[in-house]
Design a protein that fits this description.
With about 100 residues, the protein is an alpha/beta fold. It is about 50% helix and about 20% strand. The protein has a single domain, classed as Histidine-containing Protein, Chain: A (2-Layer Sandwich), CATH 3.30.1340.30. Helix 1 runs antiparallel to helix 2.
């Protein structure tokens, strides 16, 4: 089961990197390199969250724009919300984290 989840993360990373070449000139990204950097950061953050035992079972979405990571979704407690932000901040290349996680009722 663990290897299936890791394979899924790796496939998602490959897909993000493949789509980097599809970015149009009208997007906010200043270059294809910045787009690829953001995709790589997103993948690293998702992997770090997945590898954190206290977070891997939660519905946490990750998106990155200009090296700013946006966390969305839901967790059970404030401690898990803080842990997700901490894990994201510790990923190389992350400038800041916008934690928009909600606590499940």
């Amino acid at each position: 089961m663990k290897s299936i989840k890791r394979a899924t993360v790796l496939i998602a990373a490959a897909a993000l990197l493949a789509l980097a070449g599809c970015a149009s000139e009208g997007e906010k990204q200043s270059s294809a390199g910045a787009y690829i950097d953001d995709a790589a950061i997103t993948t690293k953050v998702k992997t770090a969250i997945f590898n954190e035992p206290s977070l891997k079972l939660f519905d946490i979405g990750v998106a990155t724009e200009d090296k700013v990571v946006h966390l969305t979704g839901s967790v059970k407690t404030r401690a898990e919300m803080a842990k997700a932000a901490e894990v994201a901040r510790n990923v190389s290349g992350v400038r800041s984290v916008r934690n928009e996680l909600k606590i499940k009722q």
